[in-house]
Specification:
Blueprint: H1 8-42, H2 48-84, H3 90-121
Length: 122
């Protein structure tokens, strides 16, 4: 049975840990997928047309990983602003929204790159 948080700050810390793990998964999945594709390209068994499509997919995976890292940066900036200016809510909201958008872009890039690979594989 989950325990109740003792304070609002503990609940915020718990949510930050969950968000941090989610961003780490987005970065890890995009990076791992790009490495797997690079390994496949190094074997040299693909035609030039397919290799180009796989290279495009690797680029999208790279953008997704960068977006995931940007989400982590925005989360860090949000917490830094909270520490420096606890009464200012607007900058924290802006960084929270930017972090959420960057995480969604990273996940979308992962799905998009998988789609590019699927089409190239057909």
């Amino acid at each position: 049975m989950p325990t109740r948080p003792k304070s609002i700050q503990e609940e915020i810390d718990r949510q930050n840990r969950y968000a941090g793990r989610a961003v780490a998964y987005v970065v890890g999945l995009n990076g791992l997928a790009a490495i797997v594709l690079m390994t496949g390209l190094l074997h040299g068994t693909l035609s030039a047309e397919r290799a180009s499509s796989f290279a495009d997919a690797m680029m999208v995976f790279g953008i997704g990983a960068a977006a995931g890292l940007a989400a982590a940066l925005f989360g860090y900036l949000r917490r830094a602003v909270h520490i420096e200016q606890p009464d200012q809510m607007t900058p924290r909201r802006v960084f929270a929204w930017l972090g959420a958008v960057a995480a969604i872009v990273g996940a979308g890039c992962f799905i998009g790159a998988l789609s590019v690979i699927w089409v190239a594989w057909q």
